[in-house]
Amino acid sequence: MRVKLSYTVEVEDTLKESSKLLSLKTESLQDVINLFNELVEMLAMTNLPVNITTYHEKMDKLRTQLAELDGRCEEITQIVEGYEQYRQEARAATATGDLAGLVEELKEVSLEENVDLQE
After folding, report:
1. What are the DSSP calls for the chain, one per residue?
2. What is the pLDDT of residues 58-85, one digit of tens each?
3. pLDDT exceeds cutoff 90 at 57
4. pTM over 0.90
5. Closest among 68, 78, 81 to 29, alpha carbons compared
6. Of the candidates 84, 106, 64, 63, the residue with the CA atom closest to the CA atom of residue 15
7. Nearest to residue 93, comparing CAs of 106, 80, 111?
8. Domain definitions of the chain by residue range
9. Separation between Cα atoms, residue 47 and residue 64, nearest integer Å
Protein backbone atom coordinates (compact mmCIF):
# COMPACT_ATOMS: atom_id res chain seq x y z
CA MET A 1 0.00 0.00 0.00
CA ARG A 2 1.30 3.46 -0.86
CA VAL A 3 0.57 6.64 1.02
CA LYS A 4 1.52 10.19 0.17
CA LEU A 5 3.43 12.14 2.80
CA SER A 6 3.82 15.89 2.59
CA TYR A 7 6.02 18.27 4.52
CA THR A 8 7.49 21.70 4.08
CA VAL A 9 11.01 23.10 4.12
CA GLU A 10 12.42 26.57 3.73
CA VAL A 11 12.64 27.56 0.08
CA GLU A 12 16.43 27.84 0.19
CA ASP A 13 16.64 24.21 1.46
CA THR A 14 14.61 22.75 -1.40
CA LEU A 15 17.51 21.43 -3.49
CA LYS A 16 19.36 20.07 -0.45
CA GLU A 17 16.19 18.25 0.69
CA SER A 18 15.66 16.93 -2.84
CA SER A 19 19.19 15.56 -2.73
CA LYS A 20 18.41 13.76 0.53
CA LEU A 21 15.24 12.24 -0.92
CA LEU A 22 17.13 11.00 -3.95
CA SER A 23 19.98 9.61 -1.88
CA LEU A 24 17.49 7.49 0.09
CA LYS A 25 17.35 5.30 -3.01
CA THR A 26 21.12 4.65 -3.14
CA GLU A 27 20.74 1.14 -1.70
CA SER A 28 17.91 0.38 -4.12
CA LEU A 29 20.07 1.47 -7.02
CA GLN A 30 22.87 -0.83 -5.86
CA ASP A 31 20.33 -3.68 -5.60
CA VAL A 32 19.27 -2.99 -9.20
CA ILE A 33 22.89 -3.08 -10.38
CA ASN A 34 23.52 -6.36 -8.55
CA LEU A 35 20.36 -7.96 -9.92
CA PHE A 36 21.18 -6.73 -13.41
CA ASN A 37 24.65 -8.30 -13.16
CA GLU A 38 23.13 -11.57 -11.95
CA LEU A 39 20.87 -11.66 -14.99
CA VAL A 40 23.76 -10.91 -17.34
CA GLU A 41 25.81 -13.71 -15.80
CA MET A 42 22.85 -16.10 -15.92
CA LEU A 43 22.37 -15.49 -19.63
CA ALA A 44 26.11 -15.54 -20.39
CA MET A 45 26.43 -19.15 -19.19
CA THR A 46 25.93 -20.63 -22.64
CA ASN A 47 26.80 -24.19 -21.58
CA LEU A 48 24.08 -24.35 -18.93
CA PRO A 49 20.33 -24.30 -19.48
CA VAL A 50 18.59 -21.22 -18.12
CA ASN A 51 16.20 -21.84 -15.26
CA ILE A 52 13.29 -19.97 -16.78
CA THR A 53 11.44 -19.64 -13.47
CA THR A 54 14.45 -18.04 -11.78
CA TYR A 55 15.00 -15.87 -14.82
CA HIS A 56 11.42 -14.55 -14.73
CA GLU A 57 11.55 -13.95 -10.98
CA LYS A 58 14.77 -11.95 -11.26
CA MET A 59 13.63 -10.03 -14.33
CA ASP A 60 10.29 -9.15 -12.71
CA LYS A 61 12.09 -7.99 -9.58
CA LEU A 62 14.50 -5.90 -11.66
CA ARG A 63 11.66 -4.24 -13.55
CA THR A 64 9.76 -3.51 -10.33
CA GLN A 65 12.83 -1.96 -8.72
CA LEU A 66 13.52 0.12 -11.83
CA ALA A 67 9.92 1.38 -11.79
CA GLU A 68 10.27 2.40 -8.13
CA LEU A 69 13.48 4.28 -8.90
CA ASP A 70 11.82 5.93 -11.87
CA GLY A 71 8.96 7.04 -9.62
CA ARG A 72 11.38 8.65 -7.17
CA CYS A 73 13.19 10.38 -10.05
CA GLU A 74 9.86 11.77 -11.27
CA GLU A 75 9.02 13.05 -7.77
CA ILE A 76 12.38 14.81 -7.50
CA THR A 77 11.97 16.28 -10.97
CA GLN A 78 8.60 17.74 -10.02
CA ILE A 79 10.09 19.28 -6.87
CA VAL A 80 13.04 20.79 -8.75
CA GLU A 81 10.81 22.13 -11.51
CA GLY A 82 8.48 23.69 -8.91
CA TYR A 83 11.46 25.28 -7.20
CA GLU A 84 12.77 26.68 -10.48
CA GLN A 85 9.33 28.05 -11.32
CA TYR A 86 9.25 29.76 -7.92
CA ARG A 87 12.68 31.29 -8.55
CA GLN A 88 11.64 32.59 -11.97
CA GLU A 89 8.45 34.08 -10.54
CA ALA A 90 10.45 35.66 -7.71
CA ARG A 91 12.84 37.26 -10.21
CA ALA A 92 9.92 38.53 -12.28
CA ALA A 93 8.19 39.86 -9.15
CA THR A 94 11.38 41.61 -8.10
CA ALA A 95 11.62 43.22 -11.51
CA THR A 96 8.01 44.43 -11.31
CA GLY A 97 8.14 45.36 -7.63
CA ASP A 98 5.58 42.73 -6.52
CA LEU A 99 7.93 40.66 -4.36
CA ALA A 100 5.88 41.01 -1.16
CA GLY A 101 2.80 39.42 -2.76
CA LEU A 102 4.84 36.54 -4.16
CA VAL A 103 6.58 35.84 -0.86
CA GLU A 104 3.25 35.61 0.94
CA GLU A 105 1.87 33.29 -1.72
CA LEU A 106 4.91 31.01 -1.94
CA LYS A 107 6.53 31.01 1.51
CA GLU A 108 7.46 27.35 1.48
CA VAL A 109 7.82 24.69 -1.14
CA SER A 110 5.91 21.53 -0.34
CA LEU A 111 7.84 18.31 -0.76
CA GLU A 112 5.99 15.08 -1.28
CA GLU A 113 7.38 11.63 -0.77
CA ASN A 114 5.60 8.39 -1.56
CA VAL A 115 6.30 5.65 0.93
CA ASP A 116 5.42 2.00 0.78
CA LEU A 117 3.96 0.56 3.96
CA GLN A 118 3.91 -3.16 4.58
CA GLU A 119 0.46 -4.43 5.52
Report:
1. -EEEEEEEEEGGGHHHHHHHHHHTTHHHHHHHHHHHHHHHHHHH-TTS---HHHHHHHHHHHHHHHHHHHHHHHHHHHHHHHHHHHHHHHHHHHHHT-HHHHHHHTSEEEEEEEEE---
2. 999 999 999 999 999 999 999 999 999 9
3. yes
4. no
5. 68
6. 84
7. 106
8. 2-116
9. 29
